Amino acid sequence: MASDGTPTPDKVTQLATERAALPRTALIGIFGNSAAPGALVLERGGKVSRVGIGDRVAGGVVAAIGEDALVLSSRSGNKVLRLPKS
Description:
This protein is mainly beta. It has 1 helix and 7 strands. The strands form 2 sheets. Strands 4-5-6-7 form a 4-stranded antiparallel sheet, with no helix packed on it. A 3-stranded antiparallel sheet has the order 1-2-3, with no helix packed on it. The chain is globular, with a radius of gyration of 13 Å.
């Protein structure tokens, strides 16, 4: 259950307890809605950052958040982070 009292969907609970090999920077969750999307990004060193569009993370700026992906924009170009497949 979330801290605000809303129940955690079964699918989220299942995915949260699965093991997955992740790259150093990985998208591990997406939340919110199309008007205010958010994401959880695992950074080097194990830090988890909660981000929205326009936030800086992992050397880039969050340019877009979709249903299963996040786009990081930096001087070297765009990088797409996708949710791990289960």
